[in-house]
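Note on ligand handling. Small-molecule inputs were canonicalized before submission; formal charges were left as drawn, and no protonation-state enumeration was performed. Where a ligand contained multiple stereocentres, the stereochemistry in the source SMILES was retained. For zinc ion, this procedure yielded the string shown in the input block below.
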Amino acid sequence: MKYETVIGLEVHLQLATRTKAFCGCSTKFGQKPNSQTCPVCLGFPGSLPVLNEDAFRFALKVALALNCKIQKIIKFDRKNYYYPDLPKNFQISQYDMPLAYDGVVRIIAEGAGKDIRLSAYIWKKTRESSCIRKERITALSITTEAACRFLR
Ligand SMILES: [Zn+2]
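Structure output:
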């Protein structure tokens, strides 16, 4: 039986925002444990997350640079799971409707060019793992279709 390697990539970018992805708490690194939190990032009942405007603008710049189409309506999803550094039991991300889609980058491999289609999703990523204060930095996930057949 002969197999063909077909690869899709998921690349994570940290967006250089000064505040967390869905609240106004600072993302400054190296602060005292649990000092950069609020009801929103702790997931208290009744608290409502609001997307960081800088994160949105930065993500749009990346998406446009990658020739993506931008969704007319953007939505976020709760990914429910327990993790020791995430006691509120959910993460906010984009599940089935990326911020941007149908982007394309051209790669050259073995002397030939190929267009790789991609999408961009906003989500928040934990930067530390030692306490609850976690800097929930804004991350952009760029995913490609499984189309890289050049690699051996
Ligand atoms: Zn907060």
